[in-house]
Design a protein that fits this description.
3 helices, Beta Polymerase, domain 2, 5-stranded mixed beta sheet, alpha/beta
């Protein structure tokens, strides 16, 4: 996006949402970020979509990030696109682990799967979502794999046991530091 277009977008967003914090990212990203809260998410997103001067009719992506040291450790980043205006906007929302975020799947149908993925991978709760089932892991999976405090080996492993002739699930046995490292037998 050119500097002129970014300046125009920044002015439009400042006029429409004077109370919301904005941030302009430097090069090479050169993007505008708008910060929202769970209380004003639906109204803000609806206006971004429906205002003819903004016209953000497409939601491109929703990503979740985990920042363990923060008071609100979970952050959602929505990527919006106005095809007709050739503008892009990032909307960020920080939340704690217990506060539900209103679902925007009623505004953009594609948000349905993105919200399910954010729920499953980092544990963001969505209110008003009609189907928060898991997409990528088993239904009885424990934990949130994209959180920074999730163990690299996971909590359980699933494998086929030849002796029992079935799939078994067991807790991961972590190696202790006093054990000898693995050495391949090359003979």
């Amino acid at each position: 996006m050119t500097k002129e277009k970014l300046n125009t977008l920044e002015q439009l967003v400042a006029d429409r949402f004077p109370a919301l914090p904005r941030q302009r990212l430097p090069e090479p990203a050169e993007a505008l970020v708008l910060r929202v809260t769970p209380d004003n998410l639906l109204a803000t997103m609806g206006r971004l979509r429906d205002d003819p001067e903004l016209n953000f009719t497409q939601m491109i992506d929703l990503a979740g990030v985990h920042y363990p040291g923060r008071a609100q450790p979970l952050e959602l980043v929505y990527q919006l696109l106005s095809v007709h205006k050739n503008h892009r906007l990032r909307v960020k929302l920080a939340v704690d682990e217990e506060t539900p975020v209103p679902s925007i799947s009623g505004l953009w149908w594609c948000a349905d799967w993105y919200e399910r993925e954010a729920y499953e991978m980092i544990g963001v709760l969505f209110s008003g979502h009609t189907d928060l089932r898991r997409l990528l892991t088993e239904y009885d999976f424990e934990g949130y794999p994209l959180r920074k405090d999730f163990p690299l080996e996971g909590l359980t492993e699933v494998r086929y046991d030849e002796g029992e002739q079935r799939v078994v699930r067991q807790r991961v046995q972590r190696l202790h530091a006093h054990r000898e490292p693995y050495q391949a037998n090359l003979s």
